Amino acid sequence: MVPVEASVGMVLPHDITEIKKDQFKGRAFKKGHIIRAEDVEYLRRLGKEHIYALQLGPDEIHENEAALLMAEALAGTGVEYVEEVVEGKINLTASIDGLLKIDRERLYRFNLPGEVMCATLQDNTPVRQGEQVAGLRLIPLVAARRVVSEAVSVARSGGSVVRVLPLTRVRAGLVITGNEVYHGRIEDRFEGVLREKLIGLGSTVGPVRFVPDDVEQIAAAIASCLAEGVELILTSGGMSVDPDDVTRLGIDRAGAESVVYGTPVLPGAMFLVGRIGPVPVLGVPACGMFHAITVLDLVLPRILTGERIGRGELAALGHGGLCRQCARCHYPVCSFGKS
Predict the structure, then answer these.
(1) Number of C-beta neighbours around residue 56 at 10 A
(2) Between β-strands 272-276 and 257-261, what pairing exists: parallel, antiparallel or unpaired?
(3) 3-class SS at 32?
(4) Is residue 61 within 8 Å of 142, Cβ to Cβ?
(5) Rg, the chain, Cα only
(6) Are residues 29 and 62 in contact, defined by beta-carbon separation less than 8 angstroms?
(7) CA dist., res. 118 & res. 146, Å (int)
(8) Which residues contact 48 (CB under 8 A, 6 or more apart)?
(9) In sequence order, what DSSP letters do the residues of 173-226 get, joined into one string?
(10) Each residue of 39-60: pLDDT tens digit?
(11) CA 51 – CA 234 distance, rounded (Å)
């Protein structure tokens, strides 16, 4: 440690940060900068009365080397990073549009020692290419190499900690149920809602069938969609406790298996998920037409990554499954679905 006025000619061993309230936060001096006489007053304005020189032992590691090792270990498929370390940090970003998957248990174990850190967005968050999904660094400037090696071993065990999975582009069939729509008493709005959500996730809509509240006709409409080769079926309405709401009976009659009805999510408690052979079938309750974001928005992207959703996966949605019904929806930048 030397006084700043005696540091001219020294090489900075770390970035020095400058913060201007509401204006700027970033590097004022980059690691490796050779201090000049004209830098002395600037450094003092940044609160630097002393400058530190480093001499690392064989068992020590600098923050930059540690950050690179940790980034390589944590980043999985669909994730990228720039190898330039800024202020000791590396940001992981999505290299594709998709669904963020975090191994929460191993992330916890990685962070447990305290000298290393990685902060991420929540598991199952939809992300866009280029969006930051995680940030990591060594907390001290220098640490024991053993600490970083142990953290890297945790990150490398059992697959990647941070991944972005692509969404499969499918051709979906829609079965719109309800006597009131089928007989033309009201205008259907469900098809447009479902079509918009599917297209927004990169998929397309194939056959659309309108049927009354009749078990046999609902089953026949589903069979008709399957015959046209759809890879996903969404039914709308008819999922509540009213005696005329027989959509889930029609889904059952069509041969659905592994059916799970009911979720701890609001809006979307009467949601249904099942399969007919390899084709997922989703029963969307009427709330899907009235609310911008529902349980469908939590489950559909996961279905499109190839994940099989059952009772356990739905039960886990209870924590964070209450939508705040904000006047202006900011999903997915909110707490909804973030268990």
Answers:
(1) 12
(2) antiparallel
(3) coil
(4) yes
(5) 27
(6) no
(7) 18
(8) 4, 16
(9) EEEEE-HHHHTTSS---HHHHHHHHHHHTT-EEEEEEEE-S-HHHHHHHHHHHH
(10) 999 999 999 999 876 677 889 9
(11) 64
Residue 93: per-residue pLDDT = 98
pTM of the entire predicted model: 0.86
The residue among 89, 101, 86, 87 whose CA lies nearest residue 133 is: 101
Of 165, 162, 166, the closest CA to residue 81 belongs to 162
Q: Does a cis peptide bond (omega within 30 degrees of 0) precede residue 332? A: yes
Give per-residue pLDDT as tens, 182-214.
888 988 889 999 999 999 999 999 999 999 999
Q: Token pair for residue 213?
A: 């509240």
Q: Select the more confidently predicted residue: 203 or 25.
A: 203
Residues 6+ apart with CB under 8 A from 57: none
Amino acid at 201: L
Residue 55 to residues 158, 202, 261, Cα–Cα distance (Å): 36, 53, 63
Question: What is the chain's mean pLDDT, rounded?
Answer: 93
- Non-local (6+) Cβ contacts of 229 within 8 A are 171, 206
Percentage of the chain surpassing pLDDT 90?
A: 75
3-state helix, strand, coil in the chain (%, to 5): 30, 30, 40
Give me the amino acid identity at 76: G
Reference 218, options 276, 265, 300; nearest CA is 276
- Say which DSSP state 137 is in: E
C-alpha to C-alpha distance for 4 and 305, rounded to whole angstroms: 55
DSSP 122: P
- Cβ neighbours of residue 128 closer than 8 Å, sequence gap 6 or more: 94, 97
Question: Can you tell me the distance from the alpha carbon of 141 to that of 212, in angstroms, rounded to the nearest whole number?
Answer: 68
Give 61-83 pLDDT, tens digit per residue.
988 899 999 999 999 999 999 99
